[in-house]
Structures are given as structure tokens and as C-alpha cells.
Task: inverse folding
């Protein structure tokens, strides 16, 4: 759940569960805890905002977007997502959208030092930074386009 600003979509009920299992029964040591969560759409809009405008670029944002597109059938160019990203970027305090080659070069330097150590080998091998950067760049282009009138 975001604390920096109000949610733009309905808050959903979620559950946080532990990975710790009782060694004898195999059941969780702690029962799940109910908590409010951002909708999937808003969480992904937050991730896109971070990829587009985080002051110090972070490879994890690009990995997460790419993973969601490849594995979770996330469409970052869906009009609802673009509208949410535009609204989130409009909140005071965000840096400007940056999809420059300087930013891409900074991401390339993070591949083996920051991304590889935290991923399974298969997940790292499936990640393509150029594809991920292209996806985020396409969102930047959609943001520059005039918003469509829903009427």
C-alpha cells in the first residue's frame, strides 16, 4: 500500500503470508495477515512511474515491468494504465520522464552487479534489458500523446 499519496483506484483486500513452515506439519508458522493493497493496475502504474522517473534509475523496475508483460499478461499501453501513470507523474515531487540513452547505459551497468545476484539463473537469462527499456519507452511515448476523450 502506498503512503506517499492517496490511492487512485479502489483498495483491495490482500493477505501477507509467511514462507516459514512448521518442519513437522509443513503448515505456515504464522497465519496470513489481512491488509489493504493497491489494485494490480495501480501497483503497475507505480512501477512504471518509477521506471520512467526515478531520480536514480533502478534495474529492478525494468525487470518487474518486463516480467509482468511476459508472464502476467500485463499490457502497459492499456489506456487505463496510461491514464494512471499520467496521474501519478502529475503528483508534485516526481522527476521528469527519462528514457534517454544515458539512462539505458546506467541500467546496463546494473545488470550483473544489482540484478543477477537477486534472481534465479532462469529469470536472469529470460530478462532482456533492451526489450524492457523499449516497453518503458513506449509508455513514455503514449504519455506524450494527447489523452483520449472517454466520451
Result:
Amino acid at each position: 500500500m502506498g503512503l506517499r499519496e492517496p490511492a487512485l483506484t479502489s483498495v483491495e483486500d490482500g493477505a501477507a503470508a509467511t514462507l516459514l513452515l512448521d518442519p513437522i506439519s509443513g503448515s505456515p508458522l504464522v497465519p496470513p495477515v489481512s491488509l489493504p493493497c493497491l489494485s494490480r493496475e495501480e501497483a503497475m502504474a507505480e512501477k512504471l512511474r518509477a521506471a520512467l522517473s526515478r531520480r536514480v534509475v533502478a534495474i529492478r523496475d525494468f525487470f518487474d515491468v518486463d516480467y509482468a508483460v511476459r508472464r502476467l499478461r500485463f499490457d502497459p499501453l492499456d489506456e487505463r494504465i496510461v491514464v494512471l501513470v499520467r496521474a501519478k507523474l502529475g503528483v508534485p515531487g516526481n522527476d521528469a520522464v527519462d528514457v534517454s540513452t544515458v539512462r539505458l547505459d546506467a541500467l546496463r551497468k546494473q545488470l550483473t552487479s544489482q540484478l543477477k545476484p537477486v534472481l534465479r539463473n532462469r529469470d536472469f537469462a529470460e530478462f532482456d534489458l533492451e526489450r524492457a527499456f523499449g516497453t518503458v519507452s513506449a509508455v513514455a511515448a503514449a504519455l506524450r500523446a494527447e489523452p483520449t476523450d472517454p466520451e
In short: The helical segments are 40-53, 59-71, 79-89, 101-115, 121-126, 129-144. DSSP finds six helices and two strands in the chain.
